[in-house]
Request: fold
Amino acid sequence: MEPGLAIDRLVSQLSALVGDRVTTSAPIRQRHGQDESYHAPHPPDAVVFPRTTDEVVQIVRLCAAARMPIVPFGVGTSLEGNIAAVRGGVCLDMGQMNRIVEVNREDLDCRVQPGVTRKQLNRELNGTGLFFPIDPGADATLGGMASTRGSGTMAVRYGTMRENVLGLEVVLADGRVIRTSRRARKSAAGYDLTRLFVGAEGTLGVITEVTARLHPVPEAISAAVCPFPGLEAAIETVILTIQMGIPVARIEILDEVMMEAVNRHSKLDYPRQPTLFFEFHGSEAAVAEQAQRVGEIAREHGGAGFRWAARPEDRSRLWHARDNTLYAALGLRPGARAMITDVCVPISRLAECMLATRADIDRSGLTVCIVGHVGDGNFHLLILVDPNDPEEIARATDLHDAMVMRALALQGTCTGEHGVGMGKMGFLQAELGEAVSVMRQVKRSLDPDGIMNPGKIFAD
Reply:
């Protein structure tokens, strides 16, 4: 059957199943083929909005019968082309599966549908004494965060989605529904399927429910911002803080270019210097002790002018500025697109990696911001490029590739939290070697027709 006829027939079948919650509208398709990355958009042939696991099962079975690609979609905040429909097919927008199924206060966990966003969950938890700490900056869905093994600003203390997803409900490529675990906090029962699907980017199945770990709201929270005379001094402060075992909740670095952008965007007046953003959680006494110890380390490395924020509204203003770094950076060069990338290295190699990358940036002549969750060795470049200038894009690509290969040489990873998607496929073999062939075997076993988000992680 011709591709056009196949999709027309499938759309007719989907319409019979979900009514007007399937569309071939060009603007909606375009929106669902583009994330926040610089990668070219690849719209799906149709977008469907399921509301239940049973609907997902029936949609998957229809697509499987037609051998039509399936691309799960959260809110589109991914950064490596993870949701681009590179082979067309059907996009499953999970936004209407946004119900919080249950909150178990005594057990510190919850069950949610995949379209629930992190801010929605924390609003629901308000007043329970619990919160969900994984904060990638964007108000991403928990299904999307699980799919990309997201983390963000508080991973240094609370871990990533790997540690905070306790179990999943998944619809496989043949329509079977599995639960990867029960709610017990530990189990030695068979393979760890939860971690297999966390980070699989929808290439093995469609996540339809997430059981997530919750954490007690700290008794006290305090935040601080501290500028440094240079990037190396800021990085050394981070390394010593972590090596001394100080349990900070967040340590974020913004270089001087990023600080200029944040000041402009958020109408702030921080010094145009490399700057660390800290947050401390715990009892009043513990927070005071953490802050004192970090302050001493910072002063030893030339840090000065700590600005403290203890009131919730002040902390919110501070972290709002940090969370909007992408839009702030774009303001430095209107009309540009941001080539965003990340790497992660062992904390002992962080200074070497970041300083060498800074030297590469200076030689490139490009406008680049550095920002990172440096408490766990993870940092990002926001490379501003003219999308219509091939020479500039080539320079940016060279800078990106050098940064990634350096991280791999230092026993790091090509992606700390963005996932592989399309953007990091070329580095996976260099990082993991023969393990990639094992991944391919798993993929072929669970998805023999290759319909689940094809063209991601590896090309075939």
User: Anything to note?
Assistant: The chain has four domains: 3-95, 98-216, 218-331, 333-424.
